[in-house]
Amino acid sequence: MDVAAYLETCVRESDFVLLVCTPTFCRKADAGKGGVGYEKTIITGEIYQGIGLPKKFVPLLREASPIESLPSYLKTKMYVDFLDDKLFAQSFEELLRHIYESPRFARPPLGQKPSFISARVSHSRKAEIRPKGFDLSGFKKAYNKAYNFAYSLNGMNMTDEDAQEWAEWWMTHCADKDLAIFKRVYKFAYGSLSGMDMSSEDAQEWAEWWMTHCADKNLSAFKVAYNYARSFNGMNMADEDAQEWAEWWMQNHADDDLKGFKRLYKYACSFSGLNKDDQDAAAWARKKFGKA
Known about the structure:
Layout: H1 3-13, E1 17-21, H2 23-31, H3 34-49, E2 57-61, H4 66-69, E3 80-81, H5 88-99, H6 124-129, H7 136-151, H8 160-173, H9 179-190, H10 200-213, H11 219-230, H12 239-253, H13 258-269, H14 278-291
Parallel strand pairs: 1-2, 2-3
Helix pairs in contact: 1-3, 2-3, 7-8, 9-10, 11-12, 13-14
């Protein structure tokens, strides 16, 4: 009998092939020695060509650990653990379930298929978010402006899908606001020379915060407050602290004169005043100015 031909026939015509893995089996397979080495060649060919069932080859771990007993061509396969004889019945059941495709835990049913209709092709999504009585023509124009800024290279440079999602967010939360203001705020946050040098995502998030909390405020006033907070001749704060302080200023004292705060801060940190360090002086001035 031609053993090689017999081995090829058995591997090719069987629905499942069980491979009892031990350190000796692993060494022979990796080295390509003897019948185990030839068997490896046949099985590897079937795996690469996708012949038979995807789970046709089943490693049975019988000795040592997976690292020691599983040859390279089987390391990506799920194995059945037969190391402990006391658990033989449990392991055997697991093997039978695999062969008969009867898993112990059934997969939950798939959810409803999502809609992949482009928002630019169908206005069904827009219809969901537009207010009652809203002028559809004006809505489309505003939506397209928001989308174009989000999608364009000179805007936020988003993917088509993200730009659609952002335009929908804008029409839901900021349809009554001026997109031109958002653009200026975003570019200031994203700019590295005279802005806050944020990433595009952080700049988008911050600009959205601005439109929600400070849309009626003057961006120029924020810039003055921010630059004073971070400048060496001001409060010399780190960028994030300067941003937080300037946000506090705009939300609580946007209509006040910044000079009043500066006087308090200088008094707090000067030798002839309270002689506090920069951080304590800023906190003291903020607390006192809040009571003014």
